[in-house]
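tool=predict chain=A
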Amino acid sequence: MSNLVLELRQGEVMIVNGAPIRFRTRSRIELTAKARFLFGRQILAPDQVDSPARRIYFALQSAYIGTESERENGIDAARYFIAEFQQATTSDLVRQILEQALVAAEADDCYQALKLVRRVIQHEDAVIGKDQNGQSRTESNNTHVESEPCHSGL
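tool=predict ok
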């Protein structure tokens, strides 16, 4: 495996193998071994889980960066939430993406599954009228704040 270099801003949080790390200063780190990690905007906090697609993402996030028992529970929860979402949606493309995400997660590629579910979250936000910051368009009062791009392509 080649080394991965990440630049993180002051105050940003990174979770490596289940351990949250908050950076007090701007930092540049190098991962020299395989690790399960998420950082910055990739991390979905429990208080942000306010929609069906976000429930799927949170379950997969737990499966990806959690302990062994959290991983099993996360995959089980993701299966349940994906089945519910697939029954409720009218979009064949969303059903396909969710199926691909579940296949990836069951193959222990939860990072790929998270990337796929991010696409579903964007679709869901567009359908229910949320802006990029997760607020309903009426709540945002026509003020638009550009969101920062995700560092790893999620």
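The longest helix spans residues 68-88. The two ends are 21 Å apart (CA to CA).
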